[in-house]
Amino acid sequence: MRLSIEIAVLLAALSAHAFDSVAWLGQRTLLDHEAERLRAAYPKFRERVLVPAENVVIPVESYPDGSVKTSVFAARAHIFLQDGFVWAEGVEIRQLRKDGTEESRIDADNCLVDRSTKSGWTEGHARAKYRDQAELEGDNVYFSASEEYVKIFTNTVLRAEGRVLNSIRADYDRREGVAMFDGDVRLQGREKKQDYNLFAEQAFAFIAGSNDFRRVVALGGVKVESDGRTGECDRAVYTRRDSKIVMYGAEGGAPARLTDGGGRRNSVDGSRITFWLDSEEVEVVGSSVTMETNGMKMPTGSGGVK
Fold first, then answer.
1. d(CA 127, CA 108)
2. How far apart are CA 62 and CA 98, in angstroms?
3. pTM above 0.85, yes or no
4. Which of 183, 269, 283, 286 has its CA 20 to 30 A from that of 37?
5. Under 8 Å between Cβ of 177 and 207
6. Residue 182 — very low, low, confident or very high, per pLDDT cuts 50/70/90?
7. Is the model more confident about 287 or about 54?
8. Can you tell me the mean pLDDT for 141-152?
9. Are 277 and 249 in contact (CB under 8 A)?
């Protein structure tokens, strides 16, 4: 995944809450190393499994009072006591609240869990389900129960509050309320009876709990579709509270463009274009307008148009 200090600064400026993006990216790098360690360990331990036990329940993490916080349910499992690892097949990894109710659950084809780090690697398909009905799934997944962190390497799908976000790879930090999506990103949603689609190379979502998209920052080759309008830009920000999308042109490069695909195909370019999903209102900064009727452009200089 392509990350830079510039992107970190952008995320900090656009996040919906206090967010130390540099620290978050540093922690993510550490977890990447942990994911690779477990991914490499999986086939080695799988080869050592001869006759696995059936219908096994294994505690992984406890609360200070001794009650179970995280446990592994498996149709077949092998516990490597000396190494501290658990190999399992037909898996349910459950995380409980202090009152014993289920907070989240990961269903996986196969997994290897390190009981000392409370983290694991799932080989094949895995799906995480959360108390508030959000779902995150994909293939080849790393998870950390103690950090409340999930990393998906292939075929990511996130469903939350009527929105669906697809990408190739993803990192989801539930504790911080931040999700990072990379490769062929597509966000599908509906805002006050208005459907919209947002496409990008990369996206960051700021989420309350695990079900409330507060804000999405899309980066690289961004395209937006909504109610016959199409937009193209370098980056865009979707804010749910205001039901709006702000598109930004590239620094020193191509401007943002919004095209109306109605009876007359008109378009507007600008360094920043804001449009609201629940109305026809559009605000443009540094704009020029092209109308299909005569192809004439009407520059507006450095000001804005509505």
1. 7
2. 10
3. no
4. 183
5. yes
6. very high
7. 54
8. 89
9. no
